[in-house]
Amino acid sequence: MVQINIQHGRLLEPFFQFYHQNCKDPTLITGGWDKWVIPDKEKLKKRIQAYRNVWSEYDKKVIDGISSVLGLSFNREVIDIFIVSGSSRSMSNPLIIGSQHLPDDFIVILSHELVHRILAINEPEILTTIQSVVSKFAAEENEVVKNHIIIFAVLRKIFEDDIKLLRKVIPNRNNHYKRAYYLTEPYGKILEYFRNRENLK
């Protein structure tokens, strides 16, 4: 099974600090990011350890779940996760997550980014399939929603026995994510359609 290496992205902190203090994006300013400073090292250390602890409870469920549900492999032995206190958004490559999230939120956000990562790793072979799934289940939606149809279908499946975790986190995400989550109610059909990609060629 792929190993998830959760660590402090110490060298990334100055770049994020400069960005937030100089960015004119009104949503960042409204959120107070223009006044952001690197937090106390001890608090950050404890938060990262809390992420490691909670991940140890979910690692096999999430990694095996994503691979099994999609029928894909990560083709990696190790994936580095960089925790950056100044990250106002998460990203999948490199995989960066902000330290402001609670541990339960972290599990859903990391799982979300890992689905993006496995799709990107396998994209040359599955691009046509992804486009077909989107055309069938979200043809009239914007690009952000389209890009998250498979993501939320997978999250619904791997957390179907822990749905309260998803329902706790989703209301705090943006409206595009909420829309994608709503559209993936028939997640079983979406994932079945995706796995039958050989029939779509």
Topology:
Blueprint: E1 3-8, H1 13-22, H2 26-30, H3 41-70, E2 78-84, E3 91-92, E4 95-98, H4 103-121, H5 123-137, H6 143-146, H7 149-158, H8 163-169, H9 175-183, H10 187-195
Parallel strand pairs: 1-2, 2-4
Antiparallel strand pairs: 3-4
List keywords for this structure.
201 residues, alpha/beta, 2 domains, 4-stranded mixed sheet, 59% helix
Helix content percent band: 55-70%
Name the shape in a single word.
globular
Q: What percent strand?
A: 5-15%
Low-confidence sequence ranges:
none
**Average pLDDT value?**
90
Gap between N and C termini, in Å?
A: 30 Å
Radius of gyration of CA atoms, rounded to a whole number: 17 Å
Count of helical segments?
Answer: 10
Main sheet strand line-up? 1-2-4-3
Number of strands: 4
- Structural domain tally: 2
Describe the structure.
This protein is an alpha/beta fold. The chain has 2 domains: 3-120, no CATH class; 125-200, no CATH class. The chain is built from 10 helices and 4 strands. Helix 3 packs across helix 4, helix 7 packs across helix 9 and helix 7 (149-158) crosses helix 10 (187-195).
Question: Could you give a short description of this structure?
Answer:
The protein is α/β, with parallel strands linked by helices and 201 residues long. It has helices at 13-22, 26-30, 41-70, 103-121, 123-137, 143-146, 149-158, 163-169, 175-183, 187-195; strands at 3-8, 78-84, 91-92, 95-98. The longest helix is centred in the first third of the chain and has 30 residues, at 41-70.
